[in-house]
């Protein structure tokens, strides 16, 4: 009888534990845990009258304090007095059982729970500076990644049917290997006439996230739902998102950061981070385009709040159009967002806007030790705005060669960059000559998409880019505006030469047996014979022809 009872107890507890394991929430590593909580108390402003806080304990015992947010009815409906759903979100960075406990800032009873973090469907993590060579980016600082980035500029497109956007806008880029988008709908503050006019109608023409000066009482929960379905879908596909327009809508006739009180600024940043920071693909936070970087009442104060509240330490920056006088040394910024717009001085210099060498120099100037550089707005790389602007200012046509050369100019400066091959400052097109350059060859920028594929293949397959640094100092007798070098001295060298200009390259001693030229326009490779170099010996290299750009690869 005792044996029978023992067997019964074993089976009973095994069944209980099995059921618990089956019902306990499971989240992939670096994915987003979310839980909805009801609070039926009456508040005059549910966004700000009560705060929801949560402490998470990792399997190894580390604790992280984070906070939740009011979300109306939990499905995009509600306002400051309507709805009873608050949410907590978190991004786990350890496999195993997590414990969490939430509390409210008033007398409302809190609670606790657990979830399991597993490696099934794991995400890649948060983009940060690569610890071994911080000129580059890496997931969690340890897994290097070369960004293949496209500027998707449909401000109002999030109001178009989501399935159409994913099928016709996002998926074609993902299929071409793009792992990073620069977008305008983070955050949704302006310019909603910029949507895909050859797509389905929009559900709304107004996507303004909050009323000017009133962030803590007028947050649009329907707009947040649209934003987050895009973020979540792309996060599940490990596509990073850089917010070009950022937090300040005033540069584009939207709600102004400076209209907010200090209390409102604090709420605004905290609320945005509560909703978005648990998504690993926020890469990263940006104040707005073209600001000086040192204004306490604007981008600097904003960055300080972001640093304070973002426990996941996503990338944060401002965009500097004067990279030689940047503020990236400040601790509030952990990577550099640059433009080549005013490379030499504060004076307008439109004759240089499309010059590839200005892109190279801007990326070099923007680097502060430990903080990777991202070319936010390379003027030659943007068909959408800058191509027509340059032609209007100078009468000069921006060539597809300059687009390709400017991309390589950034890469050889050990910088990431984004580009766009579609037109439009109003309604956009997904297809056709003015549309996205990923739907066949009707768009002449489809050839640029091919050039970007070649560049990506070289960086990912031919070299260990993450070990390399800009080393133009190893070049001699070259045109400094046309030939640039990225290398890991003694191991691997990559030299880009515009239109086949010759140069001398100084090498470390050794035998080099894996050498070739690669055409930057076709990807065709031409082998270079093996050779032996003595220490600091200089070799003259002449590309196969001067009809196109060539990339020299010298490797042990």
Any overview of this molecule?
The protein is of the alpha/beta class. It has three domains: about 25-120, Immunoglobulins (Immunoglobulin-like), CATH 2.60.40; about 125-465, Glycosidases (TIM Barrel, Alpha-Beta Barrel); about 470-555, Immunoglobulin-like. It has a seven-stranded parallel sheet, with helices on one face. It has a six-stranded antiparallel sheet with strand order 21-23-24-31-27-28, covered by helices on one side. The longest helix has 22 residues, at about 1-25. About 50% of the residues are buried.
Relative strand content: 15-25%
Oligomer: single chain
CATH class of the largest domain: Alpha Beta
Major sheet size, sense and barrel closure: 7 strands, parallel
H/I helix tally: 10
Instruction: From the alpha carbons, calculate the radius of gyration and give it in angstroms.
Output: 26 Å
Q: What overall form do the CA principal axes indicate?
A: globular
Domain module count: 3
Please mark out the parts with pLDDT under 50 across 5 or more consecutive residues, or reply none: 1-22
What is the residue-mean pLDDT, rounded to a whole number? Answer: 94
Given helix and strand content, the structural type is alpha/beta
CATH hierarchy: architecture of the largest domain: Alpha-Beta Barrel
Calculate the terminal CA-CA distance, rounded to whole Å. Answer: 76 Å
Helix content: 10-25%
Number of strands: 31
